[in-house]
Design brief:
This protein has a single domain, classed as Beta-galactosidase, Chain A, domain 5 (Distorted Sandwich). It is built from one helix and 24 strands. The chain has one helix spanning 99-102; strands at 5-9, 13-18, 24-29, 48-49, 60-63, 66-69, 82-87, 90-96, 110-118, 121-129, 137-139, 141-143, 146-148, 161-164, 172-176, 179-185, 193-195, 206-208, 215-219, 225-231, 235-239, 246-253, 272-274, 279-289. It is 1% helix and 43% strand. With 296 residues, the protein is mainly β. The strands form six sheets. It has a nine-stranded antiparallel β-sheet, with no helix packed on it. Strands 4, 12, 13, 18, 21 and 22 form a six-stranded antiparallel β-sheet that branches. β2 and β3 (24-29) form a beta hairpin. One of its GO terms (molecular function) is isomerase activity. Pfam families: Aldose_epim (PF01263).
Length: 296
């Protein structure tokens, strides 16, 4: 059933994942504090972005000479995944192509998500496989977890920063109507630190094309910080809906279509191109740490 979910935990954390979208809907620490956005002005929690990230022109993609409808962030977040494994400390879910998916996206695929808890926090891994024996799979894949902001009691949102592993100086993507118009948006990171406030997101997400970092710390000037790390993904998006109390940390392999791109889908910048029988892996992790020091 689409509403079916699996709750798992250990001594430090409890998590809940639903079959619908293979979505992480809750992550609580040992005190019961919720770290994942539970819904409101933005109704999702941690959607899976596949087979596109962001938008394509007019929600249409030309594939093998035929026109296909692909809406923002793709269809995986609205499909029911199959449970492959459920345990006390994790779960594995699988989505494969079928007649419904092929009406939107005519490629064979197998997408596997694995969730696991250990003493450091939650670990999420992605395995995208092309099971076709002849054709190449062209696709993007991304994560979109939304974390509660603020998550330390008696702190304000403006008390929080992102402290990156390394200095981040490169300009960011500029979006118009969901499409990338250029890579000239000024980067608000000062050295390794980004002071957070709603105004940063008035022009949509902060999109880092090739971040130097592969981990960061999200925290206030006191209390626990949230250590977030990723691997395999090339891009990073940071987003929130102004006025809402969450922050999305989004590792991506791919990004929205450039506004100037009008070619066939398989030539779209940012795609993975998986040959028959090959796979691609990536993942992210999140867990609480004491203080705001980001170790190297």
């Amino acid at each position: 059933m689409a509403s079916e979910s699996h709750t798992f935990g250990n001594e430090g954390y409890t998590a809940r994942v639903t079959a619908l979208g293979a979505e992480l809907c809750s992550l609580r620490d040992r005190t019961g504090r919720e770290l994942i956005w539970t819904g409101g002005a933005w109704p999702r929690h941690s959607p899976v972005l596949f087979p596109i990230i962001g938008r394509v022109h007019d929600n249409h993609a030309l594939i093998d000479g035929l026109d296909y409808t692909l809406t923002q962030h793709g269809f995986a977040r609205d499909r029911v995944f199959r449970w492959a494994e459920r345990s006390e400390t994790g779960c594995t879910l699988v989505l494969e192509d079928d007649p419904t998916s092929r009406a939107l996206f005519p490629f064979a695929f197998r997408l596997t998500l694995r969730y696991a808890l250990d003493e450091t926090g939650l670990h999420v891994s992605y395995d995208l496989t092309n099971p076709d024996t002849r054709g190449t799979l062209h696709a993007s894949l991304g994560a979109h977890p939304a974390f509660v902001w603020p998550f330390v009691p008696d702190t304000a949102k403006t008390d929080y920063i992102l402290r990156f592993e390394k200095e981040e100086h490169a300009p960011l993507a500029r979006l118009e109507a969901g499409l990338i118009v250029d890579w000239s948006r000024p980067n608000p990171v000062k050295g390794r630190e980004l002071a957070l406030n709603d105004g940063l997101f008035e022009e949509d997400a902060l999109i880092f094309m090739h971040p130097q970092s592969r981990k960061l710390l999200f925290g206030a000037d006191r209390g626990d910080g949230l250590a977030f790390a990723w691997h395999g993904f090339e891009q990073l998006g940071v987003w929130m809906k102004p006025g809402s109390d969450f922050l999305c940390l989004e590792p991506w392999q791919g990004y929205a279509s450039p506004a100037a791109f009008t070619g066939p889908f398989e030539e779209k910048p940012g795609l993975l191109h998986l040959a028959p029988g090959t796979s691609w892996q990536a993942g992210w992790s999140a867990g609480l740490v004491a203080g705001k020091t980001l170790s190297s």
